[in-house]
Every structure is written in C-alpha cells, then in structure tokens.
C-alpha cells in the first residue's frame, strides 16, 4: 500500500472553556491549553474527524482520553502542574486505515494553588544588646511552587511581635533576580528589659486572591556587661566575741547583677581591711566573712571597718563596694592588775614616823585591765587593815 504524507503546519490555541480547533486534516498539529486542577471529564478540545475512520492515541495515557466518535479530548484525572516534569504534553492521534496522524500539544497552565513556603517554619537569630542600630541578620526567603504572576513576591512584612518597633525588614534585589531578606535593628536593645522577641513574618504571592506564607523568627538578645553588681546593703554591721575561734562566721554580704551568664557571675573580696592584718577573710563565691585567726589571746581593736568588693565576670569587669563594721564584743576574761609604787620605801612595806602629817602620800596605786568597755573599768577600795581609819584612797 502506498501512503501519502501531507505535512501541514497548523497552530491552533484553544482556551479551556469549550474552545475547539478548526478542521484538522492529515498531518495537522493542534495546540490546546488547560488549567491545572480541573475536574475529571473536563473538555480540553477536539480534533476534526473524518467519516468512516476511528481514532486513538498512539500511547495509553493516564491523563487524557479521546472520544473516537466525536474527536473530543477530556481529562481522566485531576492534573497538578507542580507534579509534572514537563507542563506540556506532546500527543499523537492515530487514525484507522488509511492511517494519518494528528499531533496534539496540551499545555498545562498554572493556577494559584500553592502558598509561599519558607525552608523552615521557625528560625532563631541573636543580637547583642550592645549592638548598634542598623545591624542586620540574614533571613531565609520563601519560595513558591507556582509560577509567573502566582509566584512569591518580595512583599515581606513583620505582622506581629514588633510592637516596640525594634526591627524592620530589608529587601535587597540581586542581579540573578532573586531577593535577599535581612532583619535590621532600628532601635537599641536591652536584654534586661526584653530578652527575646518572637517575630511573625509574612510574605504573599502575586495571585488573586493572594496566598501567604509565614516564618516565626525568635530573636534572642544576648547579654553585654552593662550592669554593675549591686550590694543588697551599702553598710553592714556585725558583732564578734573577742574569744571567737578561727573560721567563726561574722556575717554574709550579698550582691546581684542584672546581666546574664559570666557577666553576672560575682566574685567577692576584701578590698581594704582597716589594719586588721588579715584577721578576716571572705569566701569569693558566697560572700561569707569569717575570722582567719582565733581572737583569743590577741590584742584586738574595739572595732574594724572593712571595705568589701563585688566584681562580675565581664570583660572588662565591673565592680562595686560596700562597708562592713565589725564590733569586737568584750568578754570579761582579764583580771585587773594592781601595781604599788611605795613613796620613800621599797617592796611592799612602808615605815612611817608617828608624827607624819595628815595627807602624806604613802604609795601610788595603779590598776590596768585588758578587757574593753565596762569590763575594763575598775574600782579601788581598801577592804582590810584600815580599821582605825588612818588611811584613805584618793583618786
């Protein structure tokens, strides 16, 4: 059998809604368009048929079927453009003998059925509270499975979490046509005021109506050493027995720092011990002041004034000072010591003439007591040997 091939170039584009090509003849090429996500049985278009012929696709198709009697092409399934490797189908309709072919091209058009998506739904960034205004952090941009006017736009917006107005979004278009998204500070940050922000960022696509994608950005404000340790009191008072053993607790000083981490770690020290000569020590971590030596048998002052310091762990470190007054509480542990200085004699005996004048000084008596306060106060009395009243003590 001889076959005649007639090649005609016919380009016909029909719309989805019932459009139909003009009469197709042998070797025709016909084009149709179809929006994705249409119902099963949606008409794509028709090829012109000849009486006495039957028609079929050269391949078995999952997406389309051909009515041999009418030449109408309809969908067999709901087609998702984004699931296709190619959004254009190249089909061939084959007639019965004598055989001729009709080439059919069906282009699947996009609808706005996909919202913009970020690569991750949550993201964490960190700014130091000492950072300057205008500091930026790069954020992920969104993508959209749709194309053309339905694709993602560069309309990014902080929709919540920025009530204090600390941040803004900056978009930078690059030569490739893509965009870079930055989070930028527009006001100073204070970790002690707000340690973390949760920003809800949206982006829309160009469809009508538009679809939106969202990204939650957790902004952590890291600490800068901008707070000085503060003592609970600027002046502390304590009393301590003069017989206190080594390691006796005197009192505890305490300071706090509003910073975080090492910037809030406090170390205590005795900055000045007022000539206590190392009599007291302080625990660097707890602020507990104790005696370094036993006070028993030592010559101590009535009181001591210490200057203690609290220093944080920042770089550079910040510090503050407080005063601690420690009063030594006397216990009556010493007996008075009486000393005689005989006038005109020696030892403890005095020889006097019977005509010695009244008021003559016989001896000078002195008394010392190492105790403090009232415990160191003494009183002299003649308690015996003066029954005749010949002598008296004059102070």
Structural commentary:
- This protein has 395 residues and is mainly beta.
- 0% of the residues lie in helices and 40% in strands.
- The chain contains no helices and 28 strands.
- The protein has strands at residues 13-14, 29-35, 43-46, 55-57, 64-66, 72-75, 88-95, 101-109, 117-118, 122-128, 136-139, 142-143, 152-160, 167-173, 179-185, 196-205, 212-222, 230-231, 235-241, 249-252, 255-256, 267-272, 280-282, 288-291, 303-311, 319-329, 337-342, 363-368.
- It has a five-stranded mixed beta sheet, with no helix packed on it. Strands 10-17-16-13 form a four-stranded mixed beta sheet, with no helix packed on it. Strands 19-26-25-22 form a four-stranded mixed beta sheet, with no helix packed on it.
- It is rod-shaped.
- The model is unreliable at 1-25 (pLDDT under 50).
Question: Quick gist of this model?
Answer:
The chain is mainly beta. The protein contains no helices and 28 strands.
Set down the secondary structure blueprint:
Elements: E1 13-14, E2 29-35, E3 43-46, E4 55-57, E5 64-66, E6 72-75, E7 88-95, E8 101-109, E9 117-118, E10 122-128, E11 136-139, E12 142-143, E13 152-160, E14 167-173, E15 179-185, E16 196-205, E17 212-222, E18 230-231, E19 235-241, E20 249-252, E21 255-256, E22 267-272, E23 280-282, E24 288-291, E25 303-311, E26 319-329, E27 337-342, E28 363-368
Parallel strand pairs: 1-2, 2-8, 10-17, 19-26
Antiparallel strand pairs: 3-6, 4-7, 5-6, 7-8, 9-12, 11-15, 13-16, 14-15, 16-17, 18-21, 20-24, 22-25, 23-24, 25-26, 27-28
């Amino acid at each position: 059998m001889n076959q005649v091939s007639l090649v005609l170039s016919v380009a016909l584009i029909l719309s989805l809604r019932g459009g139909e090509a003009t009469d197709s003849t042998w070797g025709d090429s016909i084009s149709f368009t179809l929006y994705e996500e249409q119902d099963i049985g949606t008409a794509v278009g028709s090829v012109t048929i000849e009486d006495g012929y039957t028609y079929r696709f050269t391949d078995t198709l999952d997406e389309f079927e051909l009515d041999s009697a009418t030449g109408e092409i309809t969908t067999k399934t709901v087609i998702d453009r984004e699931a296709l490797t190619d959004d254009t189908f190249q089909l061939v309709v084959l007639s019965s003998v004598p055989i001729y072919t009709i080439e059919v091209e069906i282009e699947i058009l996009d609808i706005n059925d996909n919202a913009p998506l970020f690569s991750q739904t949550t993201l964490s960034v960190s700014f130091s509270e000492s950072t300057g205004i205008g500091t930026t952090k790069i954020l992920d941009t969104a993508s959209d499975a749709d194309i053309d006017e339905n694709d993602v736009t560069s309309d990014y917006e902080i929709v919540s979490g920025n009530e204090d107005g600390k941040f803004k979004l900056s978009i930078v278009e690059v030569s490739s046509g893509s965009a870079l998204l930055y989070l930028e500070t527009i006001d100073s940050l204070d970790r002690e005021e707000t340690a973390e922000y949760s920003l809800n960022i949206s982006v829309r696509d160009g469809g009508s109506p538009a679809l939106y994608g969202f990204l939650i950005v957790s902004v952590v404000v890291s600490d800068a050493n901008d707070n000085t340790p503060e003592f609970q009191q600027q002046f502390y008072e304590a009393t301590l027995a003069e017989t206190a053993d080594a390691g006796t607790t005197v009192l505890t000083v305490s300071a706090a720092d509003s910073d975080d981490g090492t910037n809030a770690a406090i170390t205590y020290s005795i900055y000045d011990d007022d000539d206590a000569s190392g009599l007291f020590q302080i625990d660097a971590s707890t602020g507990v002041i104790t005696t370094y030596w036993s006070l028993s048998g030592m010559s101590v002052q009535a009181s001591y004034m210490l200057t203690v310091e609290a220093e944080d762990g920042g770089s550079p470190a910040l510090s503050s000072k407080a005063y601690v007054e420690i009063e030594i509480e006397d216990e009556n542990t010493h007996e008075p010591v009486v000393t005689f200085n005989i006038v005109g004699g020696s030892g403890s005996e005095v020889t006097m003439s019977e005509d010695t004048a009244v008021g003559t000084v016989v001896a000078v008596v002195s008394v010392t007591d190492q105790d403090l306060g009232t415990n160191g106060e003494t009183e002299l009395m003649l308690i015996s040997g003066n029954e005749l009243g010949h002598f008296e003590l004059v102070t």
